[in-house]
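Re: weekly structure request thread

Next one in the queue (123 aa):
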Amino acid sequence: MRHRPDRGAAAVEWAVAAPILILLLAAVGYGFAWAQASYAARAAAQAAVNSARVIGGDPTAAQSAAWQQMDDLGGAATGIHVTVTKDAQATTATVTATIPTPVGVLPVAYTASGSTERWSPQP
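Done, posted below.
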């Protein structure tokens, strides 16, 4: 029986492994982008609630605070939408965004709420 050398075996192994490694690295990268956008959405929603829930707080100004946070921290987030609602009992802010990927989009959403501050005289 003739001995056949293994010449070219490493090239074939790399040809098979390289696309898998590239996909894995891309998935990790998009995972980090999603995590950063999730953190930014959480910070933006909390900033909006903190801005709007105070006495005299304005939901429009709170939206601006959320947009500023997303501009500072949002990273790859696109399609950002901020909603702030305030009534006598509670203030709620919702921030949604998407992370574009080659195979679709990753959604990001966070809702923060807190009680609306109100002044009541001492009894």
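The first helix runs from residue 9 to 52. The chain has one domain: 9-115.
Next request, please.
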